[in-house]
């Protein structure tokens, strides 16, 4: 039995076509496969290929693929963090002044939501500003990649 000779391909095509329930005939579908396989092996194309061993010091990697490009500074995200930090700080300070009575208010129980909203706005701004500061200073473990850039 020849390896991938024309007769063997014809037998395999006939067997596959007999089990296939498609509307095309198996001969028309496998014709390019049969022609290319038979002609390549019959012509001895693969018999003329010369192989050589790779050098022992070449492990298949190049240094360029391990170099990291410098991270892009997400200016819009940092500006948003500064805005959240500022607004949150102002709301917390304003809510504390309202709660302490320094600023007179008719219903002092309504000042607690101002403090809560201020804290909810302040915390993400502070968190992202801290990451940006440490990344700018070059602290280990902090980079601009940790700050979401919102697809910019």
TrEMBL record:
Organism superkingdom: Eukaryota
Localization of this protein: Cytoplasmic vesicle, Autophagosome; Cytoplasmic vesicle, Secretory vesicle, Synaptic vesicle; Early endosome; Golgi apparatus, trans-Golgi network
GO BP of this protein: synaptic vesicle transport
Gene Ontology cellular-component annotations: autophagosome; early endosome; Golgi apparatus; late endosome; membrane; recycling endosome; synaptic vesicle
UniProtKB keywords: Cytoplasmic vesicle, Endosome, Golgi apparatus, Membrane, Synapse, Transmembrane, Transmembrane helix
UniProt KW DNA repair keyword: no
Protein's membrane topology: Multi-pass membrane protein
Record-annotated membrane-spanning stretches: 77-99, 111-129
InterPro entries: TMEM230, TMEM_230/134
Family note: Belongs to the TMEM134/TMEM230 family.
Protein function: Involved in trafficking and recycling of synaptic vesicles.
Identification of the protein by name: Transmembrane protein 230
Species per Swiss-Prot/TrEMBL record: Hippocampus comes
The gene coding this protein: TMEM230
């Amino acid at each position: 039995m020849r390896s991938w000779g024309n007769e063997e391909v014809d037998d395999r095509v006939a067997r596959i076509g007999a089990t296939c329930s498609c509307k095309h005939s198996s001969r028309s579908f496998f014709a390019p496969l049969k022609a290319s396989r038979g002609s390549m092996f019959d012509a001895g194309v693969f018999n003329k290929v010369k192989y050589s061993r790779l050098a022992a010091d070449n492990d298949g990697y190049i240094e360029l693929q391990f170099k990291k490009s410098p991270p892009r500074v997400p200016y819009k995200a940092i500006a948003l963090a500064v805005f959240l930090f500022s607004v949150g700080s102002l709301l917390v300070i304003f809510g504390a002044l309202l709660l302490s009575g320094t600023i007179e208010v008719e219903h002092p129980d309504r000042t607690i939501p101002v403090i809560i909203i201020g804290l909810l706005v302040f915390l993400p701004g502070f968190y992202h500003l801290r990451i940006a500061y440490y990344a700018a200073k070059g602290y280990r473990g902090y980079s601009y990649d940790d700050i979401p850039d919102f697809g910019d």
